[in-house]
Amino acid sequence: MRLVAIDEVARTRSLKRGQGLAEARAMYPDIDVFDEDERADFALLEAIADWCDRYTPLVALDGKDGLFLDITGCTHLFGGEDAMLRDILARLFQMGFDVRGSISSTPGLSSAISRFGHGGVIAREGMASALGALPVHALRLDEKTVASLLKLGLKRVANLMSMPRAPLARRFGAQLLMRLDQALGTNEEAISPRRPVAPLSAERRLGEPIQTEEDILGMTAEIASSLKLRLENRGAGGKVFELVLFRVDGRVFRISAGASRPLRDPKRISGLFSERLNAIHDDLDAGFGFELLRLNVLQHDVFDALQADFSGEEGRETSLADFIDRVSARFGAGCLQVYQHQQSHIPERAEIFLPAIAELERQPQCSENLQFLPRADRPLRLLRSPEPVEAFAALVPDGPPQQFRWRHVMHIVTRAEGPERISPEWWIDDENAKERDYFRLESELGRLFWVFRLGRYGDDPPPTWRIHGVFA
Amino acid sequence: MAHAAAAQEKLFALREQIARLEGRSLPAMAAAKMENFAARSGGEEKLSFDIAALDDALSGGLPLDCITEIRSGSFSDAGAATGFSLSLVGLMKARKAATGPMLWIADGFTAGEMGIPYAGGIRQFGIDSRTIFHASPRRLEDALWLAEGALESKAFIATILEVHANPKSFGLAESRRLSLRAKAAGRPLFLLRHAGKEEASSASVRLLVEPAPALERPLPDGSMLGGSIGHPVFNITLEKSRNPAPLSFRLEWNLHDRQFHLARDRGKSSFHKLPAHLGASLSVSADRQDRAKALGDVVAFERAS
Description:
Chain A has about 475 residues and is α+β, with helices and mostly antiparallel strands. Chain A has 15 helices and 16 strands. The radius of gyration of chain B is 26 Å and the shape is elongated.
């Protein structure tokens, strides 16, 4: 067992990361040791990354204990690079984290300076000298390469930089030079942000944190109205929105809501979130309030502008879309569904449900091909899965039963229609799947059942009877 | 004097309010006054069945701006209750030329017990299944919220709310609330109560639906095809309406005409027997002896029956 992290006191007592636990215990018998909890560490890092979203949408993870922030074009919002770095470090320090950071032109150099240097902002011309002063560990190489470099006396990056490149590549492989070039900016290195950048987003920073739902919704409507103009410029409306709430103590909540038709109207956008907030009421802990709200448009689509008429009445179309959006925001997209006919003869496969929120746009265009609809009678209620029934005195080989028992109740058949044979779909079912012979059976009391025989008489095992639905 | 006039006015207003709550027609003067703040445009809409006795009992037809409760006695009658409520929507569509979607708010327990409404059957019932929105809320509170929202939005020509038995959380207050919403929106709410008992509620009409044996399929020459199962037939009992006496009707829903008829008793004339040829007969046994021959001569007697 080895030490993976140590606190300040341990550092002053010359304990090191990577040191064996037994050795550390031998040096200081009184140290406290905890098992590493990788998942919790990762969750913490993710939470900090979420918090860093306030500075830039491009936040990437750097190993187990670092973050990359691509702040290109963001610095002027925070008073320049120096001020921004100070602000980030100070805020994180106040939250109780010991964080080091630096700003430079490449991710490699920033990482190296933060971990092995003194931090701060590195100007473009000072890059080589700043990197040169660092130990070779700073280059993010694998342990073997670092060990062999140290063995040869190449302790600082400056030693490498002054050497001819070809022998270095031959001796240590391409990775060493690639890392060196990446740190100095001659080789481009891309960071991979955790989340895609929203095509459109707007935010509000608040001097006084807000807590109540009404305040949040009011603020959302205000942000949405500032987005409206930008959506109009694109001729688009948002389909998926995300509200990001930054709590004072650093926790970040993300709430997303979808719309069945592209939306621009601030009132309806905040209406979506009103249902969402209702649904997740217990999970959203406002604590001491939210200090920053951001509204992202994650997906947008072409907005068909409608001319308003003089009556000022909202059409049924918009009220239907509005209702679907509200229901989907509150209960999820799976709650409200529409039927879709599939080309299949198996009853349970012929009709499926699709979320209404996704289908509303597509619905008017698609016209069902009616020639595939079954001609024979179909039940009004279809059981979730066919239930076995005990059938008595069925006419062999392909007649209806004269009575059957379903859920412990005996039904005496007075009339029957059928059979309608439905063959299994061998490309989905097994090749040996049995065919079904469906009958409509009317009981003495006038109840109508849809019952089928699975298999044929004379087969082994003998056929069984199932009920699959009821008619009116 | 002024005091008396004010009291009179107040009394008048209260009487008017009571009349409105009960859904009765207001006195002429009050009605004229109502015009000012009447939200409804088309007045009272009624859905006529075109069956004189039934329409009279409902004083003109089924009111379309309130709750209509459709009750079935047990889960086994769920098919009939489902069919009757859908046929009401079908009748609305046919009669009022109403187009637009309808909302089905399903009950999870009923879905598990008696299955979900099947689009194939609904289509054959005369309703385009693409215009049906199917909501499956987890709790009854959610279902009530959905029903209220649907009525409020006026997006649906009809809303069917399915419940089973007599849940406590759907009492008089809740049904009153929904009834007011329906009244304000002028849209019907069909409350489909499976396996429920009679219960005081704000529904203006309550019907008990029971299945009844279907008539036979009609043939082009007017006779009936013996042994066939034709259009669905319902036994309807008016349990709650303006009419004091509970009335029963036997209605047949014609799927093609989308119309109700009074079902006549089945004629005795139709012959009922099994098909003459039952398809493939059993194969002759190959490796055993033939069955024993019947003794004596076979004489062609007249059939006894």
